Amino acid sequence: MQTLLEKHWHHLPGDEVVELLDSSPEKGLDLFEVRHRLQHFGENRISPPRGKTPLQRFLLQFHNPLIYILLASSLITAIIKDPLDALIILSVVLINAVLGYVQESRAEKAIHALTQAMTTEALVLREGEARQIPSHQIVPGDIIQLQAGMKVPADLRLLRSRDLQIAEASLTGESLPVRKEGSHQLEPAAPLADRANMAYASTLVTYGQGLGIAVATGDSTEIGRISMLISQAKEMETPLTRKIARFSRVVLYVILGLTALTFLVGLARGQAIVETFSAAVALTVAMIPEGLPAALTLTLAIGVTRMARRRAIIRKLPAVETLGSVTVICSDKTGTLTQNQMTVQEILAGGEAFQASGGGYNPAGSIARAGQSQALTALPSALEETLRAGLLCNDSRVLQKDGAWMAEGDPTEAALLISAAKAGLRPEELARSYSRLDAIPFDSQHQFMATLHAAPEGEQRLVYLKGAVEALLARCDGQLAADGSSQPLDPAAIQAAVAGLARRGMRVLAFARKALPAASAGVHFEDVESGLTFLGLQAMIDPPRPEAVAAVRACQEAGVRVKMITGDHPLTAAAIAAQIGISGSDAGQAQQALTGSQLAELSDRQLIEEAQRVAVFARVSSERKLRLIEALQARGEVVAMTGDGVNDGPALKQANIGVAMGITGTDVAKEAADMVLTDDNFATIESAVEEGRAVFDNLTKIIAWTLPTNLGQGLIIFVAIMAGLSLPLLPVHVLWVNTVSAAVLGLVLAFEIREKNIMRRPPRAPDAPILTPVLMWRILIVAGFILGGAFGLYELALAQGASIASARTLAVNAVIVIEIFYLLNCRSLVESSWRVGLGSNRWVLISIAAMLGLQMLFTYAVPVNRVLSTAPITLAHWGWIVLVGLASYIAVELEKGLRRRRAA
Description:
904 residues, alpha+beta, Calcium-transporting ATPase, transmembrane domain, Rossmann fold, eight-stranded mixed sheet, 28 strands, elongated
């Protein structure tokens, strides 16, 4: 029987499916057979994948070259100084490891959420009796009864259905409930979203009833296959982690190379091994950027806080920076780019076209003709009757809850209520005037709904109908003119209007009426087979969010391409894309969508080309979403992918940045994502990209500020050893500079506000290093000033008779003051620091004041002098120090100015 579960069940007749699974629609399975199948197929649960143990996940947090450097720094510091300093450095490593472990542990909950999604009750037929059982006890061959409000417990081949509608957005991306019909027999290649005779696990029955036979359970279901895809999706390295790893290796090699060279030179000169080793250790400590990981973590954490204020919750710290590297955003349509509220936009009645203003379920708005609003007292008869038909032939309602307008029932029916309300028609008043007497519910075979009402005059009954255009036109023999008179039906003109609306992605409903004798107590199919009067059309669409239009434009101006990947109809997707301004690399590409079926026919190479060229993808399944993401990444793109359904889980995990919807998103999507939007709005993604770029700017500023100090101090010690001179800086001084200045000065760059032109730059190249040649040259300039300034002032002080302790104190203060001036340079890596302004980051002034205060203690406090081997210096010495610092500041500003002039 295992091979049977791999069949195309939607392609087989229902009775053949029952026969293959050896079941009965009337009795179901007996208990012995259920027990046997449970042993064979297992419970109806998704198997959790084998993951890393908690200990393995924690230890992997240390698997990074920069962490190796810090651990070595901690060990060396413990050897040459008080172990307390070593514990401080080690604590930085542990804090980073704990943060990473917590973030990774949360991500592992994605599969657990999938398992929980299937724990529900089911109504199953066994031994001829309907029984309520836990869904995990369902086996292939079980006969399942479906009712409105139930979650489908397994993959079912429907046998019978009555007005059955199932919401499959979480699985297929289809924004509206899908009508199901068990009698259909489909082609083997029918896409998942078009399989009207199937019901899939985890989807929700919204209307009607059905009977189906379980054809797949547990891991064999569609949601089970998605679970496998999530577990197999490669955890993507972020640009930041790649760049930090590359940067850390370079730093490691430079430090080890200079340390080894220093040690060998000392030995060659005949110096004592202990003295040579001590000098080599001093050089190592000088060049290790101990405070850098803490600064990076703080910068990312500040970015997380800023994004949370802009309604984007970050679940993984590196994702903050990755957002700034994004080159392509693959967005879902429904609810993200659109309002997720069907809205009537055009009404055709009496040969005239009317436009409905407003959007969503808010009744604010009006009905206009050629830009002129139509008052209720002046409504053309055909228009009023079309709106009245949509309001009366309706089983839904719209209500206001917590300040928001919400629909209860079918979204298309809610749209009809709102279009009527915009013309001044009220459900309560019409319900009293046209009381409902009977109804024919929507039937997928007949494709219409009809309601019978008592006319206000009381002399007759009125039947109002709404449904598919083809279904109603075939029953009409006339149509209502604008003034309410009857005129001959013009099917060709109506079909042409429908085709034009459909090309714009609109869903079109037709409306008709018929008068019945006053004695009629009910309405039957034979009553509406003919003799109807055609009233008009209402065309609706889920309109774009106005802020999403602006956000897409901002992304495009920033060099970030936006692509729509949706489960909706191609025409709808293309029309919305055109309204929003999403376009492919070819002119007019937004007018055409590539479907999931077309994607399946492409080779990997062809898909890579099409993924770059095309901007709109419709009817796309979860596997093909995943393949699309991989195709874009194969071209070096940094991809952000939005999603809300179970079907989006694999693609969210595969994307460089997975973005889940906080309001409509499933737990699976949220747990697989790196970022969750609390407002489900594309504009929030654009804000997050902006913040991500600002975070990377600040990270770069911190690194560019930190390295000259380490390099400069290392060069001071290296030159002293090469020249056979006493060290201007002792290891304890190096630790002071590295630890205190990094904590007091360097961290304030994490609070820098984003620069004004940040969204007018192109995205950074994913493979570009953190340190560009420009920054490396600038680092060398400042390191040269630290080397020349500190070493020069040290030798000058000694030449003028100062003690070696005072000369070393002078050198340390020179390093700190150059750092302070360079901090001002680093507030913008391109613009002049004067244009940035001191007031935009008050922490800069606070940190400079605090650092100068600490240096006063370092220089003049007697207890500190004893512990750190320092001594007081004169006012003249401070004058020399300020001049050296000012010279370094002017040199960097001149270098930036020359580069700006060259770029202009």
